[in-house]
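user: can you give me the structure for this one chain? C-alpha cells are fine.
assistant: on it. calling the predictor now.
[tool input]
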Amino acid sequence: MNHEGYKDDTAERAIKNTNRQHTADPDASYRNNRAMVAIRAVAEACGLEIVGRIALRDKESGWVFK
C-alpha cells in the first residue's frame, strides 16, 4: 500500500524480487560470510584495516556480493 492507502503493484513486485534474490542461494551466502570472516581475520593479523568495499563472486552460483 502506498501512503494514500492504494495498492502499489510496482513496489510490491520490487520488494518480492529483492527478497527472492537474497534467499535464492543460502549456500552462496554462507560461503560469502565465511570468506569475509577469514579476510577480516587476515587483515587484522597483519595489522591492516579494511577501509573500502570488498566484492566477492561465488564461483558456483555466480552471485556477486558487495
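assistant: here you go. Helices lie at 9-23, 26-45. The two ends are 30 Å apart (CA to CA).
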